[in-house]
Each structure stands twice: as structure tokens, then as C-alpha cells.
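User: Please fill in residues for this 257-position structure.
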């Protein structure tokens, strides 16, 4: 079954690439707006030999990794504190519900005003968007804690932080890993968006420069790179999730199947 799925996926990708080659060649779409696949591939090959491309890729990965790490750490700590400290969650519920729906792109003017086109502008947007993915998953994970396990831990005299470590954290970890996987994708989207709009160094700014200079094949090549980057990040996040949850029933069942 796995081999069949791989073959079907490869066939679908080949058909998509072939369609991308044929559509501009027959004039359905002008080549000036959508170059054939072969031209995009040639532009991508040229980009891979350009040191400026690798520098931009490094800038993007730096903003993504730092923003995600800060968001994960802050989200986990805040989620645990909100559940451990009495009445804190109730006191902050309305504030969270007010801040969470605010789109990160709405903070772009604030980011530019504070930090200009520096990395800190990118981090502000990435952390804000990714933080909520982690926090909400931690809160849901804590709600899923078995009350019997919680009361048993109390009856054995476990303190607050011992219960967090041995009861709360194992129950919340599957939710946390889901939040990390979602946050990783959101962080990449916001990193590219910030670079595009703000002009911070990275792949987004390089795409903007290619578009403004009418280097259309190069622009599409860079867009392909962002797509591949998202694919690699998603696969990597799922791999980490499976390894971190190797003991969990859902992962054991997935491996068995």
C-alpha cells in the first residue's frame, strides 16, 4: 500500500509538472506571466549556484527557527502557569480570546515602527502568530488530563511540579507536539510574509526583488524553494512528533498499521 501511494504521488507530481510545461507553450497562459516548467527548473539551477540565494535562505531559516523556538518556549511555560496557578486561567481568558484572533500581518506597521527591516521585526510577527498555536494546544492538553490520575497523584503526596512532570506533561505532550507542528508551518508563512512586505533579508525579499525586476522565472523558482522548504519542515515536524510520542497509543497504532 505504501509503495502504491508513493507511485501515485510521483505520477501526480509528474502530471502537474507536465501541465506546467504545456500550458504556457500552447498559449493558454502567456510565458511572460507563467514560464514553462523547464525554464523555472533552469532558473532554480542557477539560483542554487548563487551565493546570494544561500545567504537569503539562511536569513529565512534563522528567522523561522528563532521565532519558532521562542514561541514554543513561551507557549509551554505560559500554558503550564495558566493551569497551575489558581484562577489565573479564568482571569486571562477574556484577554486571550481578544488577542488571539488579531492577524499577525496587522502588526506589520508596529513591527516596522519599532525595528524597521531588522530581524526583530520578523521575530515579532512569527512569535505572535506561533505562540497561540502552542498555548491553545497546551490548554487543551491539560483539559484532557485524567481526573483519576490527578487525584491519585495527590493522594500519594506529589507536589505541584511533580504532578506537572508525571501527570500533566505526559497527557499534554501529544497536544503540544501537534501545536509545534502547526506552529512550524505558521512560522514559515509569517517569515516569508514579513520578508515580502517589510523587506527584511531573506527569500521573501529576494522574491520581491525578482518580481520588481521582471525576472519571472527566477521569481517562480524562489517560490518553488519556499514550497519545498515548507514540505521539508512539515515532514521533519512529523518525524519529531512520531519519535517524541513513540510511547503514545496513536503513534503505536500508526506504526502497526
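Assistant: Residues filled in for all 257 positions:
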Amino acid at each position: 500500500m505504501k509503495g502504491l501511494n508513493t507511485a501515485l504521488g510521483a505520477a501526480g507530481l509528474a502530471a502537474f509538472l507536465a501541465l506546467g510545461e504545456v500550458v504556457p507553450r500552447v498559449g493558454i497562459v502567456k510565458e511572460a506571466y507563467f514560464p514553462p516548467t523547464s525554464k523555472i527548473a533552469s532558473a532554480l539551477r542557477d539560483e542554487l549556484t548563487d551565493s546570494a540565494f544561500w545567504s537569503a535562505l539562511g536569513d529565512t531559516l534563522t528567522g523561522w527557527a528563532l521565532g519558532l523556538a521562542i514561541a514554543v518556549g513561551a507557549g509551554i511555560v505560559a500554558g503550564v502557569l495558566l493551569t497551575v496557578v489558581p484562577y489565573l486561567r479564568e482571569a486571562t481568558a477574556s484577554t486571550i480570546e481578544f488577542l488571539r484572533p488579531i492577524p499577525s500581518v496587522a502588526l506589520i506597521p508596529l513591527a516596522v515602527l519599532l525595528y524597521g527591516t531588522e530581524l526583530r521585526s520578523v521575530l515579532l510577527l512569527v512569535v505572535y502568530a506561533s505562540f497561540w498555536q502552542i498555548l491553545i494546544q497546551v490548554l487543551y492538553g491539560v483539559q484532557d488530563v485524567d481526573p483519576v490520575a490527578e487525584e491519585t497523584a495527590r493522594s500519594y503526596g506529589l507536589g505541584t511540579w511533580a504532578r506537572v512532570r508525571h501527570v500533566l506533561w505526559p497527557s499534554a505532550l501529544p497536544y503540544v507536539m501537534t501545536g509545534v507542528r502547526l506552529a512550524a508551518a505558521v512560522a514559515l508563512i509569517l517569515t516569508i510574509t514579513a520578508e515580502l512586505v517589510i523587506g527584511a533579508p531573506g527569500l521573501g525579499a529576494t522574491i520581491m526583488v525578482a518580481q520588481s525586476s521582471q525576472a519571472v522565472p527566477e521569481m517562480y523558482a524562489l517560490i518553488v524553494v519556499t514550497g519545498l522548504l515548507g514540505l521539508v519542515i512539515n515532514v521533519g515536524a512529523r518525524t519529531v512528533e512520531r519519535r517524541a510520542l513513540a510511547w503514545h497509543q496513536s503513534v503505536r497504532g500508526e506504526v502497526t498499521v
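For context: The CA atoms of residues 52 and 206 lie 9 Å apart.
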